[in-house]
Amino acid sequence: MFTNLEHLGLAVHDLEAATALYTTLLGEPPYKKEHVASEAVDTVFFQVGGSKIELLAGTSPDSAITKYLTKKPEGIHHVAFEVDDIRAEMARLRQEGFVLLNEEPKRGADNKLVCFVHPKSAAGVLVELCQSISPTDHE
Ligand SMILES: CC[C@@H](C(=O)O)C(=O)SCCNC(=O)CCNC(=O)[C@H](O)C(C)(C)COP(=O)(O)OP(=O)(O)OC[C@H]1O[C@@H](n2cnc3c(N)ncnc32)[C@H](O)[C@@H]1OP(=O)(O)O
Ligand SMILES: [Co+2]
C-alpha cells in the first residue's frame, strides 16, 4: 500500500547554495545531510509536515543527477512515495506493466529501501518507492 508522499527530489548544481535558499524559503534548517555512495549523490533533507524535500547534487560524472543536469535545468527530479511493503508493491507494479529500474530494493538515503520506476512508464515522472528500515538493518 502507498502510505505517504515521502519526498520530492530536487536536482541542484550547487548543494550549499540550494541548502541556504531552501532554509530561507522553508524557515527551518535541514535535519540531515548524507552522502549516498551507491548513487554518487550528496543529499540534504528538509522536513515539511509529513513529507520531505530532498536536495540532490551529483558527486561523479556517472551519477544520475549529474547526467540529468547536463540535459535539463535544476528542478523536480523525482517523486517518492512511502510504501509499507516495497517488495509487494514492486511485484504489483511489475504485474501492472510498469518498468522497474531495480530488480531488488536497494539502500537509499535516510534509512530507506528504495526502488525506481522508469519515467517512460509513469507519465514522464521518475517515481521512487521507499520503505523505512531501522538504521541498523542491512539488506
Ligand atoms: C539518495 C538515494 C535516493 C533516495 O534515497 O532518495 C535517491 O533519490 S537517488 C536519485 C538519483 N538516482 C536515480 O535517479 C536512479 C534512477 N534513475 C535512473 O536509473 C536514470 O536516471 C534513468 C531514469 C533510467 C534515466 O537514465 P538514462 O536513460 O541513462 O538517461 P537519459 O537522459 O537517456 O533519459 C532517458 C529518457 O528519460 C527521461 N528522463 C531521465 N531522467 C528523468 C527524470 N528524472 N524525470 C523525467 N524524465 C526523465 C529523459 O528525458 C529521456 O527522455 P527522452 O529524451 O524523451 O528519451
Ligand atoms: Co529520492
TrEMBL record:
InterPro entries: Glyas_Bleomycin-R_OHBP_Dase, MeMalonyl-CoA_epimerase, MMCE/EMCE_epimerase, VOC_core. Gene3D superfamilies: 2,3-Dihydroxybiphenyl 1,2-Dioxygenase, domain 1. Keywords: Isomerase, Metal-binding. The keyword Kinase does not apply. Residues 4-132 form the VOC domain. SUPFAM superfamilies: Glyoxalase/Bleomycin resistance protein/Dihydroxybiphenyl dioxygenase (SSF54593). Its EC number is 5.1.99.1. GO terms for molecular function: methylmalonyl-CoA epimerase activity. PROSITE patterns: VOC (PS51819). The keyword Isomerase applies. It holds the Pfam family Glyoxalase_4. Belongs to the methylmalonyl-CoA epimerase family. This is Methylmalonyl-CoA epimerase.
